[in-house]
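#structure-requests
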Amino acid sequence: MNALTAAIDYHAAQIAHRSALLGRRVDVAQMPVLSREPYLDLRKPGLWSPNRSCRMLPTADAWIALNLAREEDRALMPAWLQLEEIAADHWPTIARRVRERTGAQLIGEGRVLGLPLARVGEVSATSLDPRLHAIGARRELQLERLRVLDLSSLWAGPLCGAVLAECGAEVTKLESVQRPDASRVGSPELYRQLNRKKQPVTLDFSTVAGRLQLREQIMNAHVVITSARRRAFEQLELDPFALCTARPGLIWVAITGYGWQGVNSDRVAFGDDAAAAGNLVHWTQAGTPRFVGDAAADPLTGLAAAAAVLSAVTQGGGVLIDAALAVCAAAAQSHAAHSIAA
């Protein structure tokens, strides 16, 4: 059993156990949202991710994973590589240029530009369970009356919300008019499967009225699921810690690339580059890394967050669940390594 499968099985068992204690046992293996294979044209993982947007590359001193899933990131390649322009077939130029520089240099400059970029194996972790921060008073919570506000996008956050909906929670999928969930276009059938049991709502966050409605939605929820970095909420004048203080029992799920707090909290990450950051890769005998799955950090983190929510419900909430993609990936790899050693 590989590290990815073992970690998913662990989180699935936690969800089954905790949901049963709360009244409705959920078997996530029966949900059609743990794999994107039915919905996307995926290839065998290797140096390239199965969706071919992320590639692991050797630098002067390390391996990095660069994810160019977004057009805006591809447009940043000349600035990142310090070139006037770059050919439409940009990967050969990228591969050649990064060999001339160190991983630290490339990541430091990519971070300033907001690129989803990681050094392979840069993050370490041991616990498969996300970190929890007590940030508010507790109150009695019941799963069948649980109101969940899902502000997240793509895969990990919506998966957490989908699991809670299967458990019987009332889940609202709230999207920004300006920035709707990108998976609507990128993988519409997966989007439908992840959100089919949620109540859809859209708001215009650029208006005062829209921001007030967003705050009202948050204050009416028992669980809030997010996948934006902390500064995004600062721009909306929303402080999760203050909100949790004002709303006893509130459970705030913060799904990020590298953590809600700390020196890396501003870094951008997606499932493939985050998996590489956590060393959730296969190393060949020649010392070359290979991806082990499709956006592996996403389903891991979504399930870990859902299991943590179920645990927090039994304890009365009042916590921020810090579910970082790279940390969850690192924990999965570490857990597998310790299991083999034992």
